[in-house]
Every structure is written in structure tokens, then in C-alpha cells.
Amino acid sequence: MIHPTAIVSSGASIGERVSIGPYCCIGDNVTIGDDCRLDSHVVIEGPTTIGTSNRFFPFCVIGAQPQDLKFHGEETFLTIGAHNTFREYVNVHRGTKGGGGSTRVGDHNFIMVGTHIGHDCIVGSYIIMANDATLAGHVTIEDHATIGAYSGVHQFCRVGKYGYVGGYTVITKDVLPYSKTVSDRNTQAYGVNTIGLERKGFTEDQIRNIKSAFRLLLQSKLNTSQAVEAIRQLATAPEVEVLLTFIETSTRGVTK
User: Fold this and answer.
1) Residue-range domains of the chain with CATH
2) Among candidates 32, 54, 34, which has minimal Cα distance to 44?
3) Rounded to two decimals, what is the model's pTM?
């Protein structure tokens, strides 16, 4: 179902039951999976591969060249999974050669109006990005995270699993898994995102284990390394191990 005003390159591959609305432009080397819907005025450039059952609202720009002065037209990629929603004016850029060459978006994500996903970002699954949230290049957002409206994430930062970033927050260090991180005068972690974890099906015991680890990490007088050692001396559960591994693999430091 392709509207007569849409322009679809002969070099594009379009799946079954795809709906392409008025004034959409689909370029070369674009693959769109079955059951996708492009409402109108959607631009998709390649090389881009899109999975099944994705919805693109008007004026999305998907797979455009990266905003990187070191980019000189080399072949780089964007890969999008299945069952994602991209609201109006969302833009997602391809990767850069220096950043691995690929931007990747997982499954079941809800990407709201005006969101920007920059080059070489890795966006997991079941993520919510609210209006005008911005990811600079090389950002990793892990599964089930939430990025609030008008928040910006600095290059090479990570947001951990189930992390919640409040609106208007500037992230310059990694955001801890399970945490609530919000800007007031300074960007700080305000403990465990308890309500969010309950909604995601975490048990009382799992939340209690996470809170115990956070008390040592955020409320004790121990530095980060000392807190990690203190947490490891406890009988750590799998959900706590996620937190510790995230901290130990951080290159920019974590927000406390």
C-alpha cells in the first residue's frame, strides 16, 4: 500500500503489508520488514534495515548521515528491530567508521516526539524516550530504561537497565541500573526507582537486595570502589550483580 505521492527507490526492499503514506521518501539500500506503517512525510535513507511491525509518524528522518565532521560518506549502517513506535520528528542517524559503523535500536521501544538518536548509539529494548530527549553519539541505553523529556545524554555515556532519567536532566556520567537520576542544581542519583521496578515485575526480595546495595553505594561514606567491595562481601543476588558489573565496566564514572 504505497501512496502515489510517495517516492520509493527501486533499490529498496519492502516487505508484506507495508503501508507507505503520502510524500514519504525511501532511498537505496533500505529494507523495511513486514507490517510496518509510515504515516506521511517520512524519510528513510540507507543502508538501513528495519524489522517488522514498526510505526513511523509524520516527519521522521531515519538513517540519515551522522552529524560528525569526521564522516566523509563512507558506508555505515542503521539497524532497527521490531514493534517500535517513532513519533513525529524523530531522527535516528547511521553510524560512523570510527564508532564501529553501526547504530542499533532494539524492539518494543516507544520513542516520542522530537527525539534524537545520534550516530553509533546502541538502544536496547522496552525503552521509553520522552519528547525531545537527545542521545549524542556513542551512547548506550540498556533495556527497560526511561529517558525524560528534554534530557541530554553526553557522548560515550551509558544508562543502565531499568534506569530512570528525569526530565531536563543532563547526563555526563553513566546512570546506574535501577536508579532515579534527576537534575536539580546538580545531576544526582536519588536512590532506587522502586515504583518502576514493581511495575516491571520485580519481587519484594529483589527490590530489597537492590536497595541494600544502593545504601552502601549512595548513603555510606565509602568511595565507589570501597562500596563495590562492601557489596560483594554480602551474598549478592543476580540483580545486584548487574549493578556491580555496570559500575566496574564504566569508563566515565557513575552518577552518585
Assistant:
1) 7-138 (2.160.10.10), 197-248 (1.20.1180.10)
2) 32
3) 0.93
Q: How many CB atoms lie within 10 A of CB 231?
A: 22
For 92-107, b/e burial (b = at least 16 CB within 10 A) is bbbbbebbebbbbbbb
- pLDDT band at residue 185 under the 50/70/90 scheme: low
All three cell numbers of 76, joined, read 555505515
Active site residues: 119-120, 137
Q: Which residue has the cell 528522518?
A: 61
Please compute the mean of the pLDDT values over residues 233-245 and round it to a whole number. 90
- Whole-number Å distance between alpha carbons of 181 and 179: 6
Q: What is the DSSP string of 78-99?
A: EEE-SS-EE-TT-EEE---GGG
As a whole number, mean pLDDT of residues 197-222 equals 93
**How far apart, in Å, are the Cα atoms of 254 and each of 43, 90, 174?**
37, 28, 4
Give the residue among 105, 82, 87 at the shortest CA–CA distance from 35.
82
Among residues 6, 113, 119, the alpha carbon closest in space to that of 60 is found at 113
